[in-house]
From TrEMBL:
<dbReference type="InterPro" id="IPR037523">
    <property type="entry name" value="VOC_core"/>
</dbReference>
<dbReference type="Pfam" id="PF18029">
    <property type="entry name" value="Glyoxalase_6"/>
</dbReference>
<protein>
    <submittedName>
        <fullName>VOC family protein</fullName>
    </submittedName>
</protein>
<feature type="domain" description="VOC">
    <location>
        <begin position="4"/>
        <end position="115"/>
    </location>
</feature>
<dbReference type="InterPro" id="IPR029068">
    <property type="entry name" value="Glyas_Bleomycin-R_OHBP_Dase"/>
</dbReference>
<dbReference type="InterPro" id="IPR041581">
    <property type="entry name" value="Glyoxalase_6"/>
</dbReference>
């Protein structure tokens, strides 16, 4: 399969509180603890959780979403749209962070990320 789950992303208001909680809860190591982070990847032996500071108050509907990684973003987006997904927007401002936001048939948003390398397999730097 040319597409794979990369990370579950949790929208949050306080990235420091959430980093502490999820790191301890799931034995994860943050890739960064830089002041001012608005996105942080937490790595572990059995998976990855990403935290993202929400620009608006978090609601139950948009609290979590999936990031799907692929080496062929355009093909996978077309395939998913044919399966019933709806195109929401394409964010390509940063060449290292190119993703397409889609919504599943019930309106749940997820991202199809152009990631040639699976971040979940990269070793996490130690703080």
């Amino acid at each position: 399969m040319a597409i794979r789950l990369g990370s579950t992303v949790i929208n949050c208001a306080d990235i420091e509180v959430m980093t502490h909680f999820w790191s301890e809860a799931l034995d994860l190591t943050p890739a960064s603890r830089a002041p001012g982070d608005d996105f942080r990847v937490l790595h572990g032996d059995h998976g990855t959780v990403s935290l993202q500071v929400a620009a608006t108050p978090v609601t139950a509907r948009d609290q979590m979403h999936l990031d799907l990684y692929t080496d062929d973003q355009a093909t996978e987006v077309r395939r998913l749209v044919l399966l019933g997904a709806r195109h929401v927007r394409h964010v390509e401002d940063d060449p290292d962070d190119d993703y397409v936001v889609l919504a599943d048939p019930e309106g749940n948003e997820f991202c199809v990320c152009a990631k040639p390398t699976d971040i979940a397999e990269r070793p996490a730097p130690r703080p």
